[in-house]
Amino acid sequence: MLSSLVSRRRFADLSEQEILALAISSEEDDARIYRSYAERLRADYPASAKVFDGMAVEEDGHRQRLIDLHRARFGDVIPLIRREHVAGFYARRPVWLAQTLSLDTIRGEAQTMEKAAGDFYQRAAARTSDAATRKLLGDLAAAEAGHERHAEHLEDKHLTDEARGSEDQAAKRQFILTWVQPGLAGLMDGSVSTLAPIFATAFATQDTWTTFLVGSAASVGAGISMGFTEAAHDDGVLSGRGSPWKRGLASGVMTTIGGMGHALPYLIPDFWTATTIAMVVVFVELWAIAWIQNRFMETPFLRAALQVVLGGALVFAAGALIGGG
């Protein structure tokens, strides 16, 4: 790692030919990234895919202009220099990450790409005293600003209000299917199913440390079980629910959080203080579940609250009766 950092060139040490070569390779990389975004989005978001197709073509045009300029000034042999060879040069996400990014993230990433390139060239131009280099860097900054304007034009052309609304709705639906739905199921399972063993142990032993250990074991065990079950029972291909590992992660983590919420208060040595706080936490958890159901699943709030609170109350009562008996 250290040798890699030491071997990087400083931007101030690059010749004008190397700066031009760096711009050419950067344009090639950006065009490739935009095409990968287009392919990632084409099936579900065709209008946005057309926008990125157009942006890739625009990058190709700028690259060709830069190559023509290099040929006129320095000849046909372009030095091999890329972003990773220059210290402090703006970075790009690996192309393979496009497969895991959401629609909004990809749109934001494209805007960041164009702005970062333009800002870099502007700052570099301001730091050089050579007139020819300053002009070259200024031209590159203007070209990147032109990319941003062209991207806006492409969005106006391909991404109408109707198309954007449809794609945003599809992205929201995918987010709910992949993250919210399994996470909500996990939170409900973790919050409700662990009530009985935790409070049964609490009232049976009145030992806060034992209750915490039982609650932690129940929460972590339930989280692992729910996570693997969610990931294994549906690969998401036919159902369209997205990556099984994302859904498994959401379900497993939220299950564990739901149980640990009312297990953690038993780290407090005083039994009744810990139990009172645990009961308050349970109340908050159940109302949070009702809010999520209302916010994302469009379940009427009162109905969601009645279902969750009533179910939680029954499970809590069962645990208290068993433990108190």
Strand runs, count: 2
Unreliable parts:
1-6
The secondary structure category is mainly alpha
Main beta-sheet annotation: 2 strands, parallel
The oligomeric state is: single chain
Mean pLDDT: 79
Order of strands, widest sheet: 1-2
Strand content: under 5%
Order of helices and strands: HEHHEHHHHHHHH
Helix coverage percent of residues? over 70%
Q: Per the principal axes of the C-alpha atoms, what is the gross shape?
A: elongated
The N- and C-terminal alpha carbons lie at a distance of: 63 Å
Number of helices: 11
Radius of gyration: 28 Å
Count of discrete structural domains? 2
Q: Could you explain the architecture of this structure?
A:
This protein is mainly alpha-helical and 325 residues long. The chain folds into two domains: 158 residues, Ferritin (Up-down Bundle); 159 residues, no CATH class. It is 78% helix and 1% strand. It has eleven helices and two strands. The protein has a two-stranded parallel ribbon. The longest helix is centred in the middle third of the chain and has 33 residues. The N terminus is likely disordered.
